[in-house]
Amino acid sequence: MRTKLHSLLVGASCALVPAYAHAQSGLTLLNNFSANQGSGSSAGEIVAFDSFTDRLFVTSSANTLSGTGATTAISGGVHQINIFSLDSSAQKTNAGVIDFSSAFGSAANMRGLSSVAVDPLGRFGVASLIPTNNTTTAGKIGFFNLASGAVIGFADVGFHPDSVTFSADGSRLVVVNEGEFNPNVSATGLPYAGTNAGNVNAPGSISYLDIAGIHSGNLAALPSLTVNTRDFSAANLASGVSIDGLRNSNVSAVGTSGTFINNVPVFNTPAPEAIEPEYASIRGDKVYVSLQDNNALAVFDLAQDKWSEVKSLGTINQTIDATDQNAAGAADNVIAINKTVAGLPMPDTIGAYTVAGKTYVVTANEGDARVDDRDISRFGDIAGNDSMNLLIDTNAPSNFPTTQTGVRASDQLGRLNVSRLDGDTDGDGKIDTPTMIGTRSFSIYEQTAGGLVRVYDSGSLLETFIAGDTGWLDSRSDDKGPEPEGLKVVTIGDRTYLFIGMERTGHIMMFDVTD
User: Which of 140, 153, 295, 396 is buried most deeply by CB count within 10 Å?
Assistant: First the structure.
């Protein structure tokens, strides 16, 4: 199943681990090589493999910035797809680049190339393209020829397009438009000057295209296809569906002075601009979408042309390693999985699949903070703009101290990055339950008549397995641990397998999810 596996692998070096959970075959590293070529200088991130041409398409996108402080702006950059031809043993040959840097007129008008995907029928490829003014100018998708790499043309989609996904039968193309929030903090290295200054938002959405009529002889028709874009405004919600109570990390505007969010909000009905979709998977007429920053899943019914479900994922109690200081001063301190903490799943990549007539959705629960990180802090921070003392409930059953002692000590939960928005269980505006972003796990949901129901979570399994790998350095336990991010569900013979990639530790794990 080389075709499917290459859809998961990313440009970073990966240490492949044995098959897990009753898998009947293992993984063997065939090749490892730089994803850069030509004038591109960024690391490879998103990968798509075309089995018809035996070509690998890898995103390479980097900006050139000019100015300083509040006047920082994009002055140029390279936004391209690197093409590699692979032989039967996965040895590669550089096969050219597809340059999208002038998609918005000039490289200075482009913020990034965020994703790439190839048609399962081998007709064409597509890339998602983000303009500099990503909250005031619509994004685009760029179509390209898989054999020649020639750009076919462009189509407008929603704001800040992220992932692109084809249906398995090649009849539909779905673009997930994140509508990512722009905080007014130039220190992040992103440009917030001019007309697209900070604290600006745009509605998250999906765009979908009917591509059933496209064939090798009419690829030129792609840019003129109808693009249907649907955000989360009331008109696009089916009867009884609501976005009430969804997590909204953009609840308050913070400036460049270093201010952090300093009130625990009540999540009422967020504006459509607060919804940030991340990834989609298509099963029949249903499009399953992760709303990562909102800690939710959504289902779009293509037949109804409506969002048919929006499900808040709540929290999962996980036993984790909450500190990177288990052996003070040691560079290779061991992982100690001994703290139970509430976590927000906040899934990134998702995959929908069917077993015995039932549809399931599996999620990689990575977690994600705001672009400016103003919604998270170490639980033990007691001074400065990011002090948690204004937010924690010292009268809670845990009786959190205002000094860094007890549960807030560095060898307890003090080093753990927790949300500044979540964990108020009694409605008094103070945090009663420290809550981490991401759960270091994957979850499986079943589509039932009443909606999506979680039927499995991997708990501490991923982190426990990695703890036994002597090559792992304990430098991320205080943040999101191994960060499960990318996944792919494939069928091999009569078994269904999940492949899941850990962004921070470079592991790929294989699970049998047939049962």
Answer: 295
**How remote is the C-alpha of 363 from its chain's centroid?**
10
* Beta-sheet pairing, 55-66 with 73-86: antiparallel
Closest CA to 282 of 392, 190, 124, 171: 171
Between CA 299 and CA 281 the distance in angstroms is: 10
Strand order in 441-448's β-sheet? 350-355, 358-365, 441-448, 451-457
| Tens of pLDDT, residues 68-86 | 665 667 777 889 999 999 9
Residue written as token pair 């490879």 = 44
How wide is the angle at C-alpha 386 spanned by C-alphas 380 and 388, nearest 5°?
45
Listed in sequence order, the residues at least 6 apart from 91 whose beta carbon sits closer than 8 Å to its beta carbon are: 31
**192 three-state secondary structure:** coil
Angle formed at CA 127 by CA 490 and CA 199, multiple of 5 degrees: 110
CA gap 365, 354 in Å, rounded:
20
Token couple for 76: 């140029």
507-512 and 15-16 beta bridge pairing:
parallel
The 10s digit of each residue's pLDDT in 27-74 is 888 999 888 886 656 668 899 999 999 999 999 988 887 776 656 677
